[in-house]
Design the sequence.
């Protein structure tokens, strides 16, 4: 994120409370949220109002590139060395399609992986102070960016929403 | 062998050519068609000489590259073999380069061990002995193989110089009975010319003229010509004898008779012919006498003895009488049994009464084999040796300890001879008993001449510098004679044997072509490989007295009670001299398909009776000796008869022949069958003094399972139309021609056929001409550096032969017919092997060749899996070429390493050479100019190679022959090889000499 | 899995237990595996030293158990992808607790299978010539060759499976990271790639995982089809058959499922995972096996029907030979173990009894190995030209290298069992209804108590 962020982290034990907190914060105009959870839940994305992930595009592009590359590779190299084998034509499409298919899958997968790395900003070896191990185990974490004057109100909202614990930290959950 | 070794070889070659000469000056070597000064690296030089692998005396050309002999081929100018060679001839090179050759003189010391010594010492030592011998007037004996010409004369001269004359020309198979019978009947102790080619019908009474009999290459050619289906008819061939030999397997019919009853069969036929008055040109006077003689042999008696029904006998007799001309031959069992002379006499009589004497049996020219010593002479010699009459015995290239019956006691007799000198190349059983061993040149390194038939004067010249420090026998004898100086020896004025030879040829020159200059005559002779003269016919007449005398033998003919053992010369090893040639060891016997071994052929019913199964190790006991042989069940021998090939079972003779040789490692299996010669009786046959090749035996099953290395998977075709046949009837014009057993709808191509811009190499193989002799297989080994893998690997199915002769049995299991088909890479247009190779190691080139790129091959072996003909061979290991065998490697062909696939290339190196030659001479390639090694050597010209793009080429014409078919045609692989079906007359047709054929096909083949 | 005693915390504790220090049996098994690998390695060294001839392979059976093993191991791989990808797409809930192990089987099986194309070469040191790159003079491999299709299919399959496997691991690795210390923490910290379970990470992660699954599904079908085409594309009777692709895919999954059961049962026992690997899981696998077993049996029948119906002598002889010839024993092992024995799973008693499950799945493994052996060897031993018919007998090298491949596979699986969570922690959590108001207490306290331990 841009520079050192300041904010408040709330730990939640229950999903419903957690979701409620998110809605409340957004209602009160604090829209700059980041959350962490041990398991994915589409409710969370809905509550945060996130768009559909663009990874699908990477997969599609990868696949198409793979197909084209596969056909190009087989056809060109065969024409480069027009060896007759078994009386088959130099450009034996049925055979080449098999190669093209495999490459479609391979490049598609590589594209997907790239999509993941780029969009989810992987890999990252430093873990910010806002993160807490229990976010990967049994608690839902909610991080709120806020100006110093908003901190108090935010803490209030979180406690009221039923956070098991509220911390004030410098630094994002990610970064 | 890797690239570096290969260049080392080239280096050696170069050196060999540059280094000077010993006894013979290189300017003395007149290359065939090329002046000697033009030794160009990579440019082959050919020398004409004579093949000495057997007594037939075929003309041979030796191909030398950079001074190394790398290949031998038949000499097209030589009348005996007309450019063809058998497998044994092809393997001559492995005699020259054999790693077990003796490399320096050896003298046996007190401890009985051989100690090497220098030539000077050896000759000195021997000269002293010879002086003594001469001083005390003691007898010296020379024992040589069949020898003619200068060396032969020199030996006689040499003996006379030392006051002895006893001299034997020893061959285990000496045709005594033929000579004796001809002496009795026609007053001529001779082996006549048999004209197979112009016969309409051949009756062979046990004569294996396609295997080893007298001159197999010549007879194979004539037989094929006689069997060609020319416009009118095709010659018929009926084999009468107890065993189905390769020859019998090529017959229209095999009449199985018990051994020793061939004679009365012939006599019985004579009786029928005389009785029915269908004889030809027999003077009235003789008729009566002959009638009396043969009256005894009633069809009834014969059917009792042989099991041939009277009707059948009469049918055969009439058929033979109808043949104009016919030809009856006698050999093998018939000519080496108890009644050999009588049998041959009866067969001669059959020829006589049908007017064949003088037509298909001509007493000019005569074979020089009539000069061979008889077995009786050997027995006499042994007697003399035992009596201590012989003080010195000189042996040269003979191995009587191996090839004489053990009961003859030659080995023991040798101990009675104070001085035994063996001049030869190999430490065989006999040489091992010698006191002094003098290693002599092999024929390919020697000067010499050979007169196999009257008027055929063949010249032998050294094809290359000696491989080892050996000496030519002739030179050796000269120097010995001089060293043991005495008045007579002074008569030896010649400098070298070369001079002796030229002197002899000066006389010949005076006789045959005085008008020309001698040197021109000489060099022409060297180039052509000899001088070949026509001979004048001899008139001979029947001696009735002799006939009667001969027939006495036929009176008491008992039916053999227990099992009779028949020995026959192996087509691979002959009398055993071929056993140290790895190619011949690995070459499967055409009929049994077994390699690296000897065995006992026994009829399945007898086997069942004696509780013997395939591969059981048997104790074979004759009244004279006993040996162990593995059993091979075969319906190819008559019940009550067992047969074994001779030539194996060596206890010496090098790593390939003797499994106990320390160097024999890597060939696996230590055990090999014994030496059947040992079992034979030593007494000669009464009439002729010949060796008896049969004896009663008893078998005991040792219960040991013995691994036989067979190369044949299934003996049956399972109706798959691999080797197809057609009957004369079907060949009549208008008759439907069944194409293949698996007919394919008009070959539908998924893709447009690919172009062959200039050439499309193809091959046609005529199964009617192929006799299965396997010469092509050995030729291929020699030409293409094909490794030998040894018995163990062959047993696993890992033999490397690029071309193989597949043998299939047809018809009833108890009397199957045999079919042979040469199988090699078919160079398919749609080759299944090609698209499966991941690395383009095999592909189709613009001339229709399916090429294999060894360097590119990674060895997935997928190509072999996908080849329906299974003609691809995989290098499971890197196979050894024991020095100096590697000197034979053909530098034009890559030597493959372990892990690489290989196969027939249609001898692409020869194609390239042929194209280059044509290009240099600025002309198109002539049809037939390019011949793969297999086609080149085929004695019957069954294999024809050429360009399918040229509609006039022989191969193109043959590929439209009505007998054409392609193996597994329905797979649509579009092979480049067309097979022509074998013509097999239906039972009814065998007896009809005439049928309307399609004509013209084979005229092309045999021109 | 509707076990409400489970909480997120408990799941962590239970599943991370599997990664605690191994016991003696584990080391013994590891030693055995290493010994087998060493044996195989020695045999291979003989092959390099002397040549392919040390194998029992010969003319005409140029392929035998070398390729048998290749096909067998590729087949084993397939069930992993089926369970992890296909069942994922179908949102099959019981997949969650078995897919990790199944996927591990996939990866390790492929690592084993990939060895054989190298080993079986006459000149293995040139194996790189099969890779697509411009070689001497710009020559590329022959893309018409099914073997090159293999290279592409198997390598693609291996890469994609590994990516899929690792992606699935990341959130679990983070859990492991957070609950360990010292080198382990650093190691898993690195492997987890900084996973924090933030909304952004989850959003792209779930989507990527979905697409990987979507790509893996057609891939798994294609791979064994391509493998089957090694045979079907040839003209060898008994190989040249259009049914091969589906037949091989079904067979592959058949053998894979059996292998998964064979491995899950001991895992469940040793790690006491009955809560997570319930009888239901194994039973469902058994049901799948019945399905694949029926498909395989149907394929066998079809092959025979076509061989007879085509009236092709060559084809018919091959199939006659399979059932009655020199290798008939192998053929009947294949028929009984692959298509008859699995039918026992129709009986609930049998498919719910651990002992039966283990026995039958082992038998199927054997049967499927022999299926490949029979298809390869009998077809080659008797193809078109009767003169060349011959038998194949394995030598000690063939057998050692085969044993080595099993050692190699189990070596990796043993390491996996101890170094990675054999059951996906996150996905098991997903199966739980998320904690809601009123049930907070317990989970929290336990968790706190544990944090002491961790810190």
Sequence:
């Amino acid at each position: 994120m841009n520079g050192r962020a300041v904010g408040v982290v709330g730990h939640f034990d229950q999903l419903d409370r957690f979701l409620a907190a998110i809605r409340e914060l957004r209602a009160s105009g604090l829209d700059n949220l980041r959350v962490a959870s041990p398991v994915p839940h589409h409710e969370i994305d809905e509550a945060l109002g996130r768009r559909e992930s663009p990874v699908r595009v990477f997969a599609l592009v990868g696949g198409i590139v793979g197909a084209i590359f596969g056909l190009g590779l087989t056809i060109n190299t065969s024409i480069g060395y027009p060896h007759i084998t078994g009386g088959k034509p130099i450009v034996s499409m049925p055979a080449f399609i098999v190669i093209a298919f495999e490459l479609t899958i391979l490049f598609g997968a590589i594209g997907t992986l790239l999509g993941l790395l780029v969009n989810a900003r992987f890999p990252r070896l430093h873990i910010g102070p806002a993160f807490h191990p229990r976010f990967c185990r049994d608690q839902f974490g909610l991080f709120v960016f806020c100006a110093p004057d908003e901190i108090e109100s935010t803490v209030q909202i979180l406690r009221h929403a039923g956070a098991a614990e509220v911390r004030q930290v410098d630094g994002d959950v990610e970064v | 062998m890797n690239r570096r070794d290969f260049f080392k070889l080239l280096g050696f070659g170069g050196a060999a050519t540059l280094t000077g000469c010993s006894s013979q000056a290189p300017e003395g070597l007149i290359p065939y068609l090329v002046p000697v000064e033009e030794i160009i690296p990579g440019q082959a030089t050919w020398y004409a000489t004579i093949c000495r692998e057997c007594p037939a005396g075929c003309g041979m050309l030796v191909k030398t590259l950079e001074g190394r002999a790398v290949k031998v081929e038949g000499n097209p100018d030589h009348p005996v073999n007309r450019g063809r060679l058998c497998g044994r001839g092809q393997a001559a090179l492995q005699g020259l380069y054999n790693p077990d050759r003796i490399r320096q003189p050896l003298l046996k010391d007190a401890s009985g061990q051989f100690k090497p010594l220098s030539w000077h010492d050896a000759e000195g030592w021997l000269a002293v002995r010879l002086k003594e011998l001469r001083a005390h007037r003691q007898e010296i004996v020379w024992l040589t193989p069949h020898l003619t010409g200068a060396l032969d004369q020199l030996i006689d001269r040499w003996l006379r110089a030392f006051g002895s004359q006893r001299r034997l020309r020893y061959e285990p198979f000496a045709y005594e009975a033929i000579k004796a019978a001809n002496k009795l009947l026609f007053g001529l102790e001779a082996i006549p010319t048999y004209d197979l080619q112009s016969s309409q019908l051949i009756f062979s009474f046990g004569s294996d003229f396609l295997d080893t009999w007298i001159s197999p290459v010549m007879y194979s050619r004539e037989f094929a010509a006689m069997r060609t289906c020319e416009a009118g008819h095709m010659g018929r061939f009926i084999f009468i004898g107890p065993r189905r030999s390769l020859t019998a397997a090529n017959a229209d019919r095999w009449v199985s008779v018990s051994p020793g009853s061939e004679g009365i069969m012939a006599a019985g036929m004579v009786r029928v012919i005389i009785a029915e008055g269908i004889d030809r040109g027999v003077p009235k006077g003789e008729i009566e006498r002959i009638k009396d003689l043969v009256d005894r042999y009633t069809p009834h008696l014969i059917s009792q003895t042989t099991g041939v029904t009277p009707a059948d006998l009469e049918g055969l007799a009439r058929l033979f009488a109808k043949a104009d001309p016919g030809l009856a031959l006698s050999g093998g069992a018939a000519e080496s049994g108890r009644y050999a002379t009588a049998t041959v006499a009866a067969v001669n009589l059959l020829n006589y009464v049908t007017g064949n004497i003088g037509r298909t049996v001509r007493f000019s020219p005569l074979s020089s084999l009539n000069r061979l010593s008889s077995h009786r002479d050997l027995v006499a010699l042994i007697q003399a040796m035992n009596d201590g009459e012989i003080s010195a015995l000189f042996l040269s290239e003979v191995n009587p300890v191996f090839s004489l019956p053990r009961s003859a006691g030659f080995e023991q007799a040798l101990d009675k001879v104070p001085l035994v000198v063996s001049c030869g190349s190999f430490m065989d059983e006999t040489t091992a008993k010698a006191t002094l061993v003098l290693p002599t040149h092999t024929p390919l390194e020697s000067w010499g001449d050979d007169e196999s038939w009257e008027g055929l004067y063949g010249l032998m010249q050294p094809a290359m510098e000696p491989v080892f420090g050996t000496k030519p026998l002739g030179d050796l004898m000269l120097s010995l004679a001089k060293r043991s100086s005495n008045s007579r020896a002074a008569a030896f004025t010649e400098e070298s044997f070369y001079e002796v030879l030229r002197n002899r040829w000066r006389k010949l020159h005076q006789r045959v072509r005085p008008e020309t200059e001698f040197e021109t005559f000489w060099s022409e002779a060297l180039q052509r490989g000899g001088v070949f003269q026509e001979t004048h016919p001899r008139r001979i007449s029947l001696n009735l007295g002799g006939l009667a005398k001969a027939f006495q033998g036929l009176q008491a003919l008992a039916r053999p009670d227990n099992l009779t053992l028949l020995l026959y010369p192996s087509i691979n090893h002959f009398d055993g001299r071929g056993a140290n040639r790895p190619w011949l060891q690995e070459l499967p016997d055409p009929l049994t398909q077994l390699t690296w071994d000897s065995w006992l052929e026994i009829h399945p019913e007898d086997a069942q009776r004696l509780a013997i199964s395939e591969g059981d190790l048997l104790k074979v006991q004759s009244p004279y000796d006993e040996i162990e042989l593995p059993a091979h069940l075969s319906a190819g021998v008559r019940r009550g008869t067992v047969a074994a090939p001779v030539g194996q079972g060596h206890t010496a003779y090098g790593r390939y022949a003797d499994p106990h040789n320390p160097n024999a490692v890597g060939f696996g299996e230590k055990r090999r069958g014994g030496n059947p010669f040992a079992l034979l009786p030593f007494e000669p046959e009464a009439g002729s003094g010949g060796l008896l090749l049969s004896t009663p035996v008893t078998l005991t099953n040792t219960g040991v399972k013995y691994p036989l290395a067979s190369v044949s998977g299934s003996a049956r075709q399972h109706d798959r139309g691999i080797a197809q046949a057609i009957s004369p009837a079907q060949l009549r014009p208008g008759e439907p021609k069944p194409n293949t057993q698996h007919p394919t709808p008009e070959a539908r191509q998924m893709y447009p056929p690919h172009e062959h811009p200039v050439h499309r190499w193809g091959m046609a193989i005529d199964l009617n001409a192929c006799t299965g002799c396997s010469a092509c297989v050995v030729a291929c080994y020699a030409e293409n550096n094909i490794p030998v893998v040894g018995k163990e690997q062959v047993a696993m199915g890992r033999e490397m032969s690029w071309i193989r002769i597949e043998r299939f049995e047809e018809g009833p299991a108890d009397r199957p017919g045999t079919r042979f088909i040469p199988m090699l890479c078919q160079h398919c247009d749609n080759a299944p092997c090609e698209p499966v190779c991941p690395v383009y190691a095999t592909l189709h080139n613009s001339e229709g060749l399916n090429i294999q790129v060894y360097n590119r091959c990674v060895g997935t072996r997928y190509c072999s899996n996908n080849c329906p003909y299974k003609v691809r061979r995989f290098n499971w290991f890197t196979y050894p070429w024991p020095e100096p065998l590697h000197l034979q490697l053909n530098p034009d062909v890559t030597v493959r390493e372990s892990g690489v696939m290989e196969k027939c290339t249609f001898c692409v190196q020869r194609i390239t050479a042929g194209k280059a030659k044509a290009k240099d001479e600025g002309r198109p390639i002539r049809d037939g100019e390019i011949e793969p090694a297999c086609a080149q050597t085929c004695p019957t010209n069954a294999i024809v190679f050429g360009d399918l793009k040229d509609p006039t080429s022989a191969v193109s014409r043959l590929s439209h022959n009505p007998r054409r078919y392609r193996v597994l045609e329905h797979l649509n692989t579009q092979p480049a090889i067309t097979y022509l079906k074998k013509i097999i007359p239906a039972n009814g047709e065998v007896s009809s000499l005439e049928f309307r054929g399609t004509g013209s096909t084979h005229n092309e083949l045999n021109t | 899995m509707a076990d409400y005693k489970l909480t997120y915390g408990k799941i962590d504790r239970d599943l991370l237990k599997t990664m605690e220090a191994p016991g003696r049996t584990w080391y013994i098994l590891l030693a055995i595996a290493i010994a087998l690998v060493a044996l195989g390695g020695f045999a291979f060294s003989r092959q390099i030293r002397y040549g392919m001839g040390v194998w029992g392979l010969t003319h005409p059976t140029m392929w035998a158990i070398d390729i048998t093993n290749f096909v067998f191991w590729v087949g084993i791989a397939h069930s992993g992808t089926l369970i992890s990808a296909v069942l994922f797409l179908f949102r099959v809930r019981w997949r969650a607790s078995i897919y990790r192990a199944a996927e591990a089987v996939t990866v390790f099986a492929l690592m084993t299978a990939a060895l054989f194309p190298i080993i079986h070469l006459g000149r293995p040191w040139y194996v790189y010539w099969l890779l697509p790159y411009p070689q001497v003079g710009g020559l590329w491999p022959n893309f018409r060759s099914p073997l090159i299709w293999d290279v592409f299919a198997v390598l693609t399959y291996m890469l994609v499976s590994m990516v899929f496997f690792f992606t699935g691991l990341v959130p679990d690795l983070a859990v492991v990271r957070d609950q360990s210390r010292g080198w382990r923490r650093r190691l898993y910290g690195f492997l987890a790639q900084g996973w924090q379970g933030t909304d952004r990470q989850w959003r792209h992660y779930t989507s990527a995982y979905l697409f990987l699954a979507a790509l893996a599904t057609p891939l798994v079908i294609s791979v064994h089809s391509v493998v089957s085409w090694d045979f079907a594309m040839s003209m060898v009777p008994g190989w040249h058959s259009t049914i091969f692709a589906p037949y091989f895919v079904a067979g592959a999954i058949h053998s894979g499922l059996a292998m998964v059961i064979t491995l899950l049962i001991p895992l469940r026992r040793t790690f006491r995972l009955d809560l997570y690997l319930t009888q239901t899981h194994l039973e469902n696998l058994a049901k799948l096996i019945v399905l694949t077993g029926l498909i395989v049996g149907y394929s066998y029948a079809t092959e025979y029907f076509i061989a007879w119906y085509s009236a092709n002598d060559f084809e018919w002889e091959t199939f006659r030979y399979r059932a009655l010839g020199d290798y008939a024993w192998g053929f009947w092992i294949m028929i009984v173990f692959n298509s008859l024995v699995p039918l026992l799973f129709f009986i609930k008693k049998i498919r719910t009894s651990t002992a039966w499950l283990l026995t039958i799945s082992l038998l199927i493994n054997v049967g499927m190995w022999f299926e490949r052996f029979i298809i390869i060897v009998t077809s080659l031993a008797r193809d078109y030209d009767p003169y060349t018919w011959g038998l194949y007998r394995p030598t000690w090298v063939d057998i050692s290298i085969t044993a080595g491949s099993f050692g190699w596979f189990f070596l990796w699986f043993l390491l996996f069992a101890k170094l990675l969570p054999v059951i996906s922690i996150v996905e098991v959590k997903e199966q739980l209804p998320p904690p809601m108001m009123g049930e907070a207490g317990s989970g929290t306290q336990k968790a706190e108590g544990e944090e002491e331990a961790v810190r």
